[in-house]
């Protein structure tokens, strides 16, 4: 992978097994990682999204021992991606502000309580599985389309032979269920 080749420039020496571990972890979580980065960067994703991915790979190389021994490496990866995206966005906005003399407001992903709670829940070992277990099979299918595959409601409606408004209503029920379950776990 291109990003892992950049590790050599930063003097990170990884074994082939460590490179494979990082690559498999990213591939397993790629859609969620990109969604997290896109969510934090909003309209700046096309400009600095690749920079965030590169920084994430480098952080993984730097913290490989921690990552391999972490009880929830998927959660670590998701939270790291979000933090890197927010930090990159702040740096980018500060640079633009200095360059053009404009005041650029920072985007705060924390404004969306639901998304913030979802990121935090990844840190808890097995909690996400317990929360998602409360969804019906039909809700789980829609959850996967919305939050893992990031499909628009129109496409979900076509796939599931339902209306867009039904897909939106089911998503509202999913969010309500997840929020209620997260409260049980102290989120």
Describe this structure in words.
It is a single chain. This protein has 187 residues and is mainly α. It is built from ten helices and no strands. Helix 3 (45-62) packs across helix 5 and helix 8 (137-148) crosses helix 10. The radius of gyration is 18 Å and the shape is globular. The two termini are 37 Å apart.
Query: Can you summarize the main beta sheet?
Result: none
Number of helices: 10
Oligomer: single chain
Structural class: mainly alpha
Tertiary shape: globular
End-to-end distance: 37 Å
In N-to-C order, the SSE pattern is: HHHHHHHHHH
Short description:
With 187 residues, the protein is mainly α. It is built from ten helices and no strands.
Write the layout of secondary structure elements.
Blueprint: H1 2-5, H2 16-41, H3 45-62, H4 64-69, H5 73-100, H6 113-121, H7 127-132, H8 137-148, H9 153-160, H10 164-184
Helix pairs in contact: 2-3, 2-5, 3-5, 8-10, 9-10
Question: What structural keywords apply?
Answer:
mainly alpha, 187 residues, 10 helices
